[in-house]
Write a structure and sequence with these properties.
Helix content: 40-55%
Largest sheet: 7 strands, mixed
Number of strands: 7
Number of helices: 12
Shape: elongated
Mean pLDDT: 91
Structural class: alpha/beta
Radius of gyration: 23 Å
Order of helices and strands: HHHHHHHEEEHHEHEHEEH
Low-confidence stretches: 15-27
Length: about 300
């Protein structure tokens, strides 16, 4: 049903077809009537904005949670077009929705769970960190929500806030391979690749070999135009130091067992972050193939 509805929505928004309605034969059965787009809205972006902004207007908020499967479908239909609407419109719509159930902790938690499924977790069709943060921020600040239940969202919130694409990464500490205490700061004027790896990960070892053998990476390092950090979310013990002894001297190599609490490593290791010459996070959680392709284009 999800993909069928999405196709219908795109056709409706782009072709000016009749608005979605729970009573329409063409549309799937919905929990409540979805927005009817005014004929006067001809701009595609304005149509997406209207749809998002008015999605819950006809929703009976006191009863929609009685049918959670249908609510989950409605939530999917709400968040899927978000990538095509303006950020301000989306954030405003999320805020109104979460505020509408602020006095019902279990309802707010359920919406956060749906947001995780659709915007953050493995089942999400697309990750949109800023919008996911907008869903979980009210849960974290809601005094009606049990601290134990909001704890996992607090961890996710910190991870995402510290590593948001388009912004500087938050500073974090690590122990280098010589036992020295270091702190990472976003550094302008030089591009940086952060290679998150684990000593016991065979894919990490292969990624390291491929990056180490890349001629372009070596040239940029030698020219002072690139910095590579190889960081492991483990204790900086003797086992780890032995595992990194063959890493290039030109790389900054370190470990911190709490790294996965500081930054977003939801895909595990190996994972690569790329920071541009302005010190802004340009990409995260990408693989070695993407890194080598990026280097080949420099």
């Amino acid at each position: 049903m999800k993909r069928k509805f999405w196709i219908y929505l795109v056709l409706m928004l782009t072709c000016g077809c009749p608005a979605i309605s729970a009573q329409s034969d063409a549309a799937p059965a919905t929990l409540f009537q979805y927005p009817q787009l005014p004929d006067s809205l001809t701009d595609i972006n304005a149509r997406y904005n209207y749809y998002i902004s008015h999605f819950w207007d006809r929703a009976p908020m006191k009863s929609v949670f009685s049918s959670k499967p249908k609510l989950a479908q409605a939530f999917y239909d709400f968040v899927t077009p978000m990538r095509f609407a303006s950020a301000d419109t989306v954030r405003s719509a999320i805020s109104r929705l979460m505020n509408a159930v602020a006095d019902k902790a279990d309802h707010q938690l359920y919406l956060a769970q749906l947001a995780e499924d659709n915007l953050y977790g493995d089942s999400a069709e697309v990750w949109i960190d800023d919008y996911y943060l907008a869903f979980i921020r009210p849960v974290i600040s809601n005094k009606r929500v049990d601290k134990a239940l909001k704890a996992r969202y607090k961890v996710q919130y910190d991870q995402l806030r510290n590593s948001r694409v388009g912004r500087p990464m938050a500073p974090f500490a690590f122990i280098d391979r010589n036992g020295g205490k270091q702190t990472y700061f976003s550094q302008p004027d030089i591009a940086t690749i952060v290679f998150f790896n684990d000593p016991d990960c065979s894919d990490c070892a292969m990624a390291r070999v491929r990056l180490q053998a890349d001629v372009k990476a070596a040239q940029l390092l030698e020219q002072g135009k690139l910095k590579i950090l190889a960081l492991s979310p483990v204790d900086a013990d003797e086992t780890w130091r032995d595992s990194v002894k063959d890493y290039p001297e030109s790389w900054i190599v370190g470990a911190n067992p709490d790294l996965d609490l500081c930054v977003d490593l939801r895909k595990g290791t190996p994972a690569f972050y790329v920071l541009d010459e302005q010190g802004l996070l340009a990409a995260k959680n990408i693989d070695i193939n993407s890194i080598l392709l990026l280097l080949s284009k420099i």
